[in-house]
Amino acid sequence: MDIFVLGVGEAGDPDFSNSSVAVTADGFRLLIDCGHSVPPSLWRALPDPDAVDAVYFTHHHPDHCFGLVPVLIRWTDDGRRKPLEIVTTAEGRRQLTRLFEAGGIDPERARRFPLVWRETPGEGTEGRIGPFAVRSAPTLHAVPNHAIRLEAGGRSFAYSGDGRPTREAEDLYRGADLLFQECFTLKADPTQPFHAAHEALAGWPERLGIGAVRLYHVRRDQRGALAAACSGDGRMGLALPGERIRLG
């Protein structure tokens, strides 16, 4: 399993693309989230219009889904023919359809490749996306957010999306080889009740048996403090844009 980090930034980050990763196993590539500033990073890193097989959305805030319309337009212009799976909730599909309408895209026509809609696996159930066994769990966020765990080739990767972790999310992450966890601030901020803080995550690798934790979606004025807090911790650190991680 290979993880390529396209972006690690928060919603309005001027220096880093919105948080997004591409995960590959057995020649199948899954993109997790595609926010408004992700497309240029995606096009530079993966210029082939057929490079992505599926997109999973943790939730539907602009920094996690608004990049889908320009990506579809670019792939159409570049001659994509391969079907694209879109994995989201039923409400997420309705929201994305409205986004297509706002962007002048007919979701059923005017493309040379079909969109294949898939439902996010419900809590406690296992689904499949390509070669990946998939489970999800809710986090505490301003809108419904579904963290995801992927398993393939005996390895496991979890990705939180946004929001403070719930007990269900912690169970989802338990024993993962690698977890990407949203971490907005060093200490809990009462004005940001729907984001995680480092002080609540410290010790997670040991407590949950996680091989490594990478923090992302960090508030832009908190990166230095969070990097310092993670220094010397070999199992927890900041995710790096452009980083490639191979599990196994």
Describe the structure.
The chain has helices at 39-45, 62-65, 68-77, 90-102, 167-173, 198-201, 204-208, 223-230, and strands at 2-7, 20-25, 28-32, 54-56, 84-88, 115-119, 127-129, 132-139, 145-152, 155-159, 178-182, 212-216, 236-238, 244-246. The protein contains eight helices and 14 strands. It is globular and about 50 Å long. The chain has a seven-stranded mixed β-sheet with strand order 6-5-4-3-2-1-14. Helix 4 links the parallel strand 5 (84-88) and strand 6. It is an alpha/beta fold.
Topology:
Elements: E1 2-7, E2 20-25, E3 28-32, H1 39-45, E4 54-56, H2 62-65, H3 68-77, E5 84-88, H4 90-102, E6 115-119, E7 127-129, E8 132-139, E9 145-152, E10 155-159, H5 167-173, E11 178-182, H6 198-201, H7 204-208, E12 212-216, H8 223-230, E13 236-238, E14 244-246
Parallel strand pairs: 3-4, 4-5, 5-6, 10-11, 11-12, 12-13
Antiparallel strand pairs: 1-2, 1-14, 2-3, 7-8, 8-9, 9-10
